[in-house]
Write a sequence for this structure.
């Protein structure tokens, strides 16, 4: 699902039409915004970073007036309106249009049922019924003492910019976990082109920590986004991208119970034009 895109006519000031007047509850991580500031003859392009707590510094960092916690509009680019309108009228491709609006993002969700447990130290596949409303959730159970793994492969959408990606993990603790326990999830990826060796090294993995909520095993847990993940190899259009996921046992991970992984969302930037196969 594509992110939302907002428009404003002034960067700050809190009044109608200002970027900082948009209620933070309506903004999600990765959303974009354009400010057409006719007074100062400038166009500003922003991406929303829900985890940022940076001090406001207009026009580079904008905090919504309704927000008392994390979440900032981060300036990605700006240009004079004369240049913006001139460049926009010259746009003839999707990539050109996207470059005018700033980087846009999209997502892929990979459920646990689409992942394979590794033969060596693989996570155990199972399904759980949440009985009151007959909610069935397929999951992979990752041990709290031994690092276990799962994997999946897919060709990324043709619009992907072939650069770094990020991920969020959807999971729940097994019964017995305590509120405040910490779990660390880890993801690595690598690109395979035609005639590449399949058994190739992946890129450097990235780790994200999450904390068990008060609802413990009854609650869905969604992590914050990982740091940027560099895909190993040299990603190209049509490559098969191989992902390896694990629970990073040790470090800050102190939950002794299994962690049930329901799925992963992959975030990627859209900047490339889609063309037909030749």
């Amino acid at each position: 699902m594509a992110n939302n895109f907002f428009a404003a006519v002034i960067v700050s000031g809190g009044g109608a039409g200002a970027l900082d007047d948009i209620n933070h509850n309506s903004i999600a991580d990765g959303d974009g915004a354009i400010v057409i500031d006719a007074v100062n003859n400038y166009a500003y392009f922003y991406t929303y970073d829900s985890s940022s707590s940076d001090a406001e510094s207009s026009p580079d960092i904008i905090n919504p007036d309704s927000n008392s916690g994390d979440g900032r509009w981060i300036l990605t680019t700006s240009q004079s309106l004369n240049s913006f309108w001139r460049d926009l009228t010259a746009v003839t491709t999707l990539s050109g249009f996207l470059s005018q609006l700033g980087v846009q993002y999209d997502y892929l969700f990979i459920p646990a049922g689409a992942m394979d447990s590794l033969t060596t130290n693989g996570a155990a596949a199972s399904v759980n019924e949440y009985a009151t409303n007959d909610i069935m959730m397929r999951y992979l159970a990752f041990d709290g003492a031994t690092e276990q793994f799962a994997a999946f492969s897919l060709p990324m959408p043709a619009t992907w910019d072939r650069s770094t990606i990020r991920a969020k993990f959807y999971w729940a603790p097994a019964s017995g976990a305590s509120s405040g326990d910490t779990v660390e999830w880890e993801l690595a990826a690598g690109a395979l082109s035609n005639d590449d060796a399949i058994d190739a090294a992946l890129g450097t993995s990235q780790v994200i920590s999450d904390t068990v909520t008060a609802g413990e095993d009854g609650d869905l847990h969604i992590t914050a986004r990982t740091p940027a993940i560099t895909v190993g190899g040299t990603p190209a259009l049509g490559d098969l991208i191989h992902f390896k996921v694990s629970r990073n046992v040790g470090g800050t991970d102190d939950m002794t119970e299994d962690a049930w992984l329901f799925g992963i969302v992959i975030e990627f930037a859209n900047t490339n034009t889609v063309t037909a196969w030749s």
